[in-house]
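Q: Start with the shorter request: fold the first protein.
A: Done. Sequence, then structure:
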Amino acid sequence: MGLTEIFEKISNVNLNFTILDAIDILLLTATIYGLLRLTQKTRASQVLKGLGIFIVLTQLCKLIGLSAMSWALNLLIEAGVIIIVVIFQPEIRRALERVGRNKIFSMVGGGEVKDYSREIEEIERAVLDMSKHKVGALIVFENHTGLNDVIESGHIVDARITSELLENIFFHNAPLHDGAMIIKGDRIVAAGCFLPLSDNRSLSSELGTRHRAALGISEVSDARIIVVSEENGVISLAHEGTLVRYLDIKSLHEVLEEIYHVQDRSSKRIRGKVWNKNG
């Protein structure tokens, strides 16, 4: 088949679009864009781009008339979809959770905003004091994703947030100091909880179990996690598979304000050394 025949086939494609055709194309474009946005900065994004190239090549082969090549590419695409679902199951789960948390689908109204200034002050005081004295801490702030399975792995506290209680729980050799604390709103829900560990091999060997646990829960939920290292007192933040280290007083305050919705989460970039799931 010569180039002339190929161009003739392309020119013979029916271009009499209806309004429904236009809507169909717009919806498809929006879906593809949404998938790319949901998977950006993840391993799955590159695989999706590669799969897209295979799909385009398959359609071109069909259009030109390369039946054998088209058949082979179709098999690769079908197998590729299954492989992607298996390998990238955590990324797919997080993407679906992000869709579910979208404001468009949320039924939560814009009710009265509660004042959490006292809680922010108490947590900030405790974290800074534990950092100063190199007391290890792992504090998980529950957001939209429920953490009932994590809460059930520890001990129910259900107490008002105070700096004294936070420090007592994480004090060296205290019964619950090795586990994670779960905070929801103005209550310490549980302590001594077990978190899933991140299996990312690019995580620095200098980071211990607390940091790996913080990343692990951040990979499967929308929680924000504050970590205090007992080796050097460094304060870190884990969220959506990203770890920001070396938070100073100002950065810690900004993080707590974001957690309690005092400021727009997109308005500031937290200062610190960033380690993410892509290394």
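Q: Next, the second protein, separately.
A: Sequence, then structure:
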Amino acid sequence: MIFVLVGTLLVAFLIYVCCFGGSSTGVIGRMHRALTSCGCFGRCLGKICGKRCAAACEYVDDVCCWRPNPLLQLFYLSLMGGGFILYYMHCLPHIPNTRLSAWHRLSSYAAMLGGFVIFFLASFCDPGTVTSANLHRFSTVHFDNVIYKPKMCTTCMLPRPARSKHCVICNKCVARFDHHCPWLNSCVGERNYRLFLLFLIYHSVLCFYSFFIHVQITMSLAIDTYQLHDAYYLDAAGRRQSVSALQAFQYLFMRHNIVVAIGIFCLVLAFALFGFWAYHMYLISRGTTTNETFKWQDLRAEFKRAQPAGERGASVRVPVNTYNKGFLRNLSEVLYPLSLRPTAGFADARRHGGAMIHFPATASSVECDGGAEDEPEHIDAAHAQPESAHPHQE
């Protein structure tokens, strides 16, 4: 039984690391990159199985990791659908009981339906794709000239608004780019970030609710059905010994292993999803995104390298994040994106320090960028000026 519990927790932890660890910059992030690095896996496979196998692995890497594909969307649907089938077969027959009323039968269906609806909304909602027709709507965000400066995307052939990024998987520029989510097979950007947060918190609450249901069913089985609180056994000396809580749990696990295992699995996923949601709420409170956290890390590293030799080890002061406007205002921009608000077109963009009123005619107007790779640009720590003017301002 201990091995089953440890195995369940280990599988849940690995799923969390593989699926949600990409945004982490600590140990979880390093584990995620080690477990999901197709290139590293391909090199190891090539040494073991030969070049042909390595070439096949590279093809799978390209299809699965660098092209839009619904693999994890299908996995989500199978995970949710399979879990509900197990719930229908093994848990629903125990409702109602002395601890759960009959309405929980209906609420289970409603909760699952809500999860699917939110999943499809988050998957197919436009993340904030930048086009020539809507460029003015995404250009009301100023360039700070620290981690963002006027740049031309030569793949989309458009000026890239501040806080946007060209996604190499979706092959499009996305406003207020956070990350590419394989679970949604879509980027998470300005216009679907709120749905992504709703997806996380809803499924976290759904897993907590599922855990509550399974606990109540288990308690009903233990107390009302098997009356384990009155159970006893005879020890070696023939004396009565009350059944301990661990022994009662072991008995229930042997008789109803699916009910108990799903409950534990839901609890682990609930905390994992809530932690990921809380992390994104923290990013909102700091006025940054997952993509920008890496840019700020690169900036700090650049400042450290630019420090005089005698000051190495001292704390590094980086420019203030001018996109941080306070938690409430940051949250309001997530819930009601700037691009959906009324605008006066490029006049607003020019007033706020965003893209200029006309597209740049030459590459000298703005820094060009190939789009296919969006590596952080080299930042001169000695000349970083968050409030300096840029070519798009008049």
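Q: Describe the second briefly.
A: Residues 193-225 form the longest helix (33 residues). Residues 135-191+289-322+337-369 form one domain.
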